[in-house]
Amino acid sequence: MHTQKSLIFYCDCIMExxxxxxxxxxxxxxxxxxxxxPVPSLEESLKKYLESVKPxxxxxxxxxxxxxxxxxxxxxxxxxxxxxxxxxxxxRNWLEEWWLNVAYLDxxxxxxxxxxxxxxxxxxxxxxxxxxxxxxxxGSITLWHNFNYWQLLRKExxxxxxxxxxxxxxxxxxxxxxxxxVPGITRDSVMNYFxxxxxxxxxxxxxxxxxxxxxxxxxxxxxxxITPPEICRQLTYIHKRCHSEPDGPGIAALTSEERTQWAKxxxxxxxxDPQNLTMLEKIQSSILVYGMSDGxxxxxxxDYSQVTAMILTGDPxxxxxxxxxxxxxxxxxxxxxxxxxxxxxxxxxxxVSRYVDEKIFENEGKxxxxxxVQNIPLPEELxxxxxxxxxxxxxxxxxxxxxxxxDLDIVVYAFTPFGKKLTKKKMLHPDTFVxxxxxxxxxxxxxx
Length: 448
Description:
Elements: H1 2-23, H2 42-53, H3 59-74, H4 76-89, H5 96-105, H6 111-114, E1 117-120, H7 135-154, E2 162-163, E3 166-167, E4 179-182, E5 189-192, E6 205-210, E7 213-218, E8 220-221, E9 224-225, H8 228-242, H9 259-272, H10 274-285, E10 289-292, H11 305-313, E11 326-329, E12 335-339, H12 346-362, E13 380-381, H13 388-405, H14 420-425, H15 430-446
Parallel strand pairs: 6-10, 10-11
Antiparallel strand pairs: 1-12, 2-3, 4-5, 6-7, 7-13, 8-9, 11-12
């Protein structure tokens, strides 16, 4: 009788669990039911174009533009519009591929300084003010929270973003982890290795860059996420080795090169030794890249200029410029992130950064769990086969990168008089407000 009751209770629990799973919203559950991107009418597009031109043209220029637009509308414009409608019938998003190629993947200038976005973490404003000797402990906690966010995506537990009750496209969240741009001779490509748990296996290793060397280690052990003390052991092992042994060649610097040059250098590197390709793919597929810098940037809640400059224009060997997510740590326990813009927009990075910041704040900047460290495998070093040509390619990449970086001024001050609530009250999106502010500043400086 006792066994029968236990069995009934067990079955009830399973049914309850299955019911909960079936009614619980999943991160990507609405993807297949989202509407396709509509094609605006030709008239609507041309009207918007004229409206955007008007502020920049005098009366004569605007009149001439109107004539050109009218001729286009009554001529080739209609034929092109029909082709666009035909394309839209076969694609859910007729613009996405074109935009990705033209705006990012076809462009040949170095992407790291021209397209990547970067920014500092706000942890210094509460429990983690700059302090030497905290890099390893804080790094392990920061990584752990990032890996928890990765698990939320894997399990589809991240809430669906909505406007009212209308779900928004969550696809870009797939591109945050285990994603990397790969250089091509004429066009780059974006490789995404991420999968949800229901879809199958997903890479579970992290790449660590330190002193020109590359290491990887798995963040899962016996089906569970390793803890901050265990992550700290891995980072300490890497840090000790890198500061007691010669520096590595700094392969990561190649990602800062002009795109075709990097593509050729990559092809040569792979031709030198097939194992080089295996190691490149290991970096590409890793959850994220964690860079350990010896720099100690000055930063205050009012002035983030120096740390931002070091994240965006600092040592090119502590980040993999093509990765969708680089988390960079400094010796004084300050952090920032840098990512390739092609796979996703900045709000995705802001979302994970805010999550990590909130978790650090909730836990007072500490790890409050067990200090026990399991016997997990030590990090593996990826030692590339290089020759004189590869070393020259790295040297050239560093030279062009530092030359370009020296021409970039970065000032990041906290703006506190008002925030997005006021701009939205004035019917201005915060992004629109900042864009207008930039244009106004330029006009005031240059009078045009």
